[in-house]
Design brief:
Elements: H1 5-23, H2 28-45, H3 48-55, H4 66-83, E1 101-106, H5 110-121, E2 126-132, H6 135-145, E3 149-152, H7 161-171, E4 175-179, H8 188-195, E5 200-202, H9 213-228
Parallel strand pairs: 1-2, 1-3, 3-4, 4-5
Length: 237
């Protein structure tokens, strides 16, 4: 539920004062007064998750670790205020938004372009900003859009992927992931692609138009894309 930003601006400093009093309370009576004040603050700001957390402290557990409780309540309140909406108690804070990796998808198959695009769409770190159906068009898109990442097929008309890589190595931007059935990892084509600067090679699924790319190869594509973009691979959805 979205919360009133003006109320939140006043709420957080008062909440932190109350949690500081709770952490330093010398006895149960003082702890209860601090918790009562916090309940009034949470109700006034309509933050249900904090109210629920406070109700769970009735009666106070034995033993009661006031400093640890105050720290947890403070951290959650800060997460709610940062999000601008209520959230389950203890839910991890959303990761800080980073720059979106602007991606070019190059493949002569419209089906494969769609499948690669859909695989990357599962990861909010990536945005496909352009597509190309052959190597010459790919070079035009690279020059015009300056993508951060290029998902590149090898076997294409007009100019193949290795030809794109040779030109890209001289004047292109971003990083390249080769997605191709022709560049078998460990094979000659893959080795040449790596020599020309491709970060990694991902094989296509069996059959150039196989509809299972999103399910069987989607994770591999996302992991390769994150590696090429310098993002943590462990965070791939």
């Amino acid at each position: 539920m979205s919360l009133d930003p003006e109320i939140l601006a006043f709420f957080l400093p008062e909440w932190e004062e109350a949690t500081t009093r709770l952490a330093g309370a010398p006895d149960e009576a003082t702890q209860r007064r601090a918790l009562d004040a916090m309940g009034a603050l949470a109700s006034g700001a309509e933050i249900g998750s904090l109210n629920a957390a406070l109700r769970a402290l009735e009666p106070l557990p034995e033993p009661f670790d006031a400093p640890a409780t105050a720290a947890a309540l403070t951290a959650h309140a800060r997460a709610v205020v940062a999000a601008g909406e209520d959230r389950p108690f203890g839910a991890p804070a959303a990761p800080p938004a980073g720059p979106v990796i602007r991606t070019l998808v190059v493949d002569d198959s419209a089906m494969m372009r769609r499948l690669v695009r859909e695989s990357l769409s599962a990861d909010p770190a990536f945005a496909v900003v352009a597509e190309a159906a052959d190597g010459r068009e790919a070079l035009a898109r690279i020059a015009e859009d300056a993508p951060d990442l290029i998902m590149l097929d090898i076997e294409m008309p007009v100019l193949d992927g290795l030809g794109v890589l040779r030109d890209w190595a001289l004047r292109g931007t971003g990083a390249v992931v080769v997605v191709s059935s022709a560049a078998v990892p460990g094979g000659e084509v893959a080795a040449e692609a790596r020599r020309l600067g491709a970060c990694t090679v991902v094989g296509k699924p069996s059959g150039a138009f196989s509809p299972d790319l999103g399910e069987r190869q989607g994770e591999a594509i996302r992991r390769a894309a994150r590696k090429a973009a310098g993002l943590p691979v462990e965070a791939a959805p």
